[in-house]
């Protein structure tokens, strides 16, 4: 009984890691589809999204079964309940990658982004993928010190996001309102993706230590 | 023991209802501060936000204590775990209302919105507040039929949000890129607020029936 239980706990943890990996891969491909106006790649992200949703349902079911059948206490209880919360964050990361891919598909064969901001999105994409990979690593290692670093790494995303808005707000912006609207929403998607990765880290700290780090600001505010 | 347990279950449910009420009130005031460029009201929303965050922490702690001490099964287990998930949705609704208030404060004494789109935001605000109130009602009554209706009510929000983008994308838009960026983000905040209210409804259906309605699309996509 105990062996089966431990196996199921490990499986739940593994499934969360796999989900985080899928969300990171989705964001990586979505960014490339955005930068290259690559329709096939955008379609791939869109087609693969169900994998994340399906895993999300499977993780919740597994967590409920563990709670219902095993009546876990202390650390195990924290692991399972935090797992359910983490599912929601990773699910959202997948949805945000999907939004990026859909934006690329919507404007195809045109590029969504004016060339002027390509560099910003290449870098925001790189950071988002790195944060996704860090969230996956933290889910696998449960290292609270590594988890705490995600917040620092998110600062680079926030800085880029703020810079992007100064570009948009500049009187020299020559690409019209429609492009500005696309850039605004896309910037927000990347920034929120990173926030959810940080939130995964915060929850891992809680499940390991029993103490919840203070809630971060929604760092996507523009000034 | 059982009496104390039932009391604590009821208290958790009550706290969620109170939280939803606070998020709805915050969005109501935030919308008025936005439409009237009312700085005092914006400050009020910003100052009161901690109440929502504090309740969010208190709800999570209460839920954990119930899980740890009582080892609930079946319906009670679903109630508590769903409660934890619902906390995250309402917490987010509060954060989105906060964003609206901060936008009003940031541009004060100017109005954030060009007069042309005031009507859209007045109506989106009305719908958001109604959805918040419906979420509160559903948390209190646990009526799955009422909960299912939230999704229909959200359709009006989606329609408005789409219309808003046609106004933005119109060649006749005369208010510049900076205003367009503000309108884009604000529109997204209202639309996401409504999505989270729908999600609360979906989780109430699950906690009552044990069956999860299918996940809605993120309905904020523009075409």
UniProtKB/TrEMBL annotation, chains A, B:
Domain of life of the native organism: Bacteria
Localization of this protein: Cytoplasm
All copies of domain PhoU, residue ranges: 19-103, 122-204
This protein's name: Phosphate-specific transport system accessory protein PhoU
Stored Gene3D superfamilies: Phosphate transport system protein phou homolog 2, domain 2 (1.20.58.220)
Gene: phoU
Organism this protein belongs to: Rhodococcus gannanensis
Function according to Swiss-Prot or TrEMBL: Plays a role in the regulation of phosphate uptake.
Coiled-coil stretches: none
Chief location bin: cytoplasm
């Amino acid at each position: 009984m105990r062996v089966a239980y431990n196996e199921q706990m490990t499986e739940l943890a593994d499934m969360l890691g796999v989900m985080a990996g899928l969300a990171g891969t989705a964001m990586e491909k979505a960014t490339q589809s955005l930068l290259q106006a690559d329709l096939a790649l955008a379609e791939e992200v869109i087609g693969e999204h169900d994998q994340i949703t399906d895993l999300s349902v499977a993780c919740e079911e597994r967590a409920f079964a563990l709670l219902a059948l095993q009546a876990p206490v202390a650390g195990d209880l924290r692991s399972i309940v935090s797992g359910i919360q983490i599912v929601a964050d990773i699910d959202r990361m997948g949805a945000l990658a999907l939004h990026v891919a859909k934006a690329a598909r919507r404007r195809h064969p045109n590029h969504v982004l004016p060339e002027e901001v390509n560099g910003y999105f290449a870098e925001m994409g790189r950071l988002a993928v790195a944060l996704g990979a860090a969230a996956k690593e933290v889910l696998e290692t449960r290292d609270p010190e590594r988890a705490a670093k995600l917040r620092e790494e998110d600062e680079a995303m926030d800085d880029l996001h703020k810079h992007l808005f100064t570009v948009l707000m500049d009187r020299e912006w020559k690409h019209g309102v429609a492009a500005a609207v696309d850039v605004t929403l896309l910037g927000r998607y990347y920034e929120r993706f990173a926030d959810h990765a940080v939130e995964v880290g915060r929850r891992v700290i809680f499940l390991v230590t029993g103490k919840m780090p203070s809630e971060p600001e929604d760092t996507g505010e523009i000034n």
